[in-house]
């Protein structure tokens, strides 16, 4: 009789253990499912500035820049500064900047884009918002597809892709705060370049972006700017 009781007791223990294991497995599955739920689409904060390191791949030759992205959506303004504009298809369209290494800025004020070369205070008109040269709107990634969770240089990241055309993907990685306005950029990759954004170099107190006096509509940029204005083809660059 004692053997039967002992066996019954062991069976009950085994059943409880199996139920506990099933419960743990179910919890792990639920946690995994919840973790894979798609977050809210990216929305950029209206004001911020962040430094980045940029890499261009030109015929398998890698060129590196450092720069700063300054964003001011309420005033329809932005500034993208690069330490060297020689590899940028917009920066090379004025004077001899296609052959010399010089700092260059994409300067967008009131939805008009200018190319500014601060070392020599040169400036040329690129294109306007109607031609596709305004600032990126805060919700420009609302059509993006969520690719999943990744890790970018040790930082957890949401990964997205946004297509400009059938073969023109923009890959974006951002931090994982639930509120999109609290996130910051980690990386952007498109065509032949990528920008790595530095997390301890983000600022929310952005100064007003003003247009230098040297900027004039009489000075017309060429290269990619002329393509956006409809005055040249991409093949001609």
TrEMBL record:
Q: Which UniProt keywords apply?
A: Membrane, Transmembrane
**Which superkingdom does the taxonomy of this entry point to?**
Eukaryota
User: What protein am I looking at?
Assistant: Transmembrane protein, putative
Which species does the entry assign this protein to?
Tetrahymena thermophila (strain SB210)
């Amino acid at each position: 009789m004692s053997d039967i009781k002992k066996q019954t007791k062991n069976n009950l223990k085994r059943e409880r253990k199996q139920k506990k294991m099933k419960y743990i497995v179910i919890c792990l599955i639920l946690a995994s499912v919840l973790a894979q739920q798609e977050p809210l689409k990216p929305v950029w904060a209206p004001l911020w500035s962040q430094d980045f390191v940029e890499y261009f791949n030109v015929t398998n030759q890698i060129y590196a820049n450092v720069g700063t992205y300054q964003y001011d959506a309420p005033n329809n303004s932005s500034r993208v500064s690069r330490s060297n504009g020689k590899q940028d298809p917009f920066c090379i369209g004025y004077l001899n900047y296609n052959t010399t290494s010089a700092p260059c800025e994409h300067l967008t004020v009131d939805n008009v884009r200018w190319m500014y070369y601060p070392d020599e205070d040169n400036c040329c008109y690129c294109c306007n918002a109607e031609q596709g040269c305004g600032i990126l709107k805060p919700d420009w990634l609302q059509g993006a597809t969520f690719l999943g969770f990744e890790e970018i240089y040790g930082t957890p990241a949401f990964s997205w892709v946004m297509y400009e055309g059938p073969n023109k993907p923009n890959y974006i990685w951002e931090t994982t705060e639930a509120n999109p306005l609290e996130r910051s950029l980690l990386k952007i990759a498109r065509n032949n370049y990528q920008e790595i954004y530095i997390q301890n170099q983000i600022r929310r107190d952005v100064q007003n972006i003003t247009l230098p006096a040297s900027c004039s509509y009489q000075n017309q940029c060429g290269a990619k700017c002329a393509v956006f204005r409809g005055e040249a083809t991409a093949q001609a660059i």
